[in-house]
Design brief:
Number of helices: 12
Largest sheet: 5 strands, mixed
Shape: globular
Radius of gyration: 28 Å
Strand order of the largest sheet: 1-6-13-14-15
Structural class: alpha+beta
Number of strands: 15
Distance between the termini: 57 Å
Helix content: 40-55%
Length: 348
Amino acid sequence: MRDWKPIFWFTGVWQLVALLWQFVALHRFYRAMLRQLNDPVYVRRTQEKIAEKGEILKFNYVGRISRFIFSVIFGAIILPSMSRSSQNRYMIALDDIAQRIGCISLYRYRPINSNEIDALEKGYLWFHAADDFNDPFEGTIKLKEVEQDTTMEIALQISTRRNNEKPELTERVFEIPNLLAQSNDYYKRIFQSMLSHTKVCCFSKSKTNELMWAHYADKHKGMVLEYNISFDLKTFSFALPVIYHEKLPEINFMAQQDKSILSVLENKSERWSYEQEVRIINDNPRGTNNKIPIDPNALRSVIFGCKMSEEHKRKIKTALQKYPHIIFQHCRKSDNEYELIIESEVKR
């Protein structure tokens, strides 16, 4: 009589392997769907990759039955219990940022040089000094007039809190007659000191602005980097849309000293409104590093300028070769309109 035990053991082991394999494949699939709600291209590519590897399609009926049972258990019990609360927190945070800045994808116009290649290879954003921008009115403040007694009280509280000095010592500093009430230069010196410690990273909501390609992407010889905020909520939670005005907005510097940098740097003349700018502002009073790490998955695509050299294209692709999810696109001029057209390259 034939011994069926080895066959039963083999079938059981094979079923267990199939189940474990399905756990890995479905876990990756569900994570991709949860994290890419606003990026259908990535979801499609992930599904295609899974299908190509045969992680779901190469099992016989035993594997299919195991897959069905596991899908029911995973989808109905394990996934909701493990991730419902984290999903809710994630979606609330993402919705808050998206509503504040008005988009999911942000674009960064950059030239091609060794610093930019290094940033792509190592996965960081370069933050520029706030007092080194091309707008001559950047960091300009128009102060509101306030009562001297109120200003003295606010100044005393802020200085005591920040410097950890004794009140009597701090008070003597501000006893200079009429200094706080009458000297705008004094306020502006304080503000410039704070501004010198501030770093800013700039983005745009548009990827086809001809003027920005000319100004910030080396006359169309540079590139535009597309970032999806859903991959790095920690970094993009500080993003603020720039507000454009006809006239300089007024601020009560001493009354809102802790937020004065943000109040000024999020405002620009309406002449710059074509940039549709979004900024991440780091105003750490102790100073901050110019290089701020970002999740590499946040960089979704690189758009080559219509005048970029083939050599620079090769350098960029080499720098990003360890990030296979990144899509390479190129910009070209329309044949019939004053318009830039973005086209995806053939798959690498």
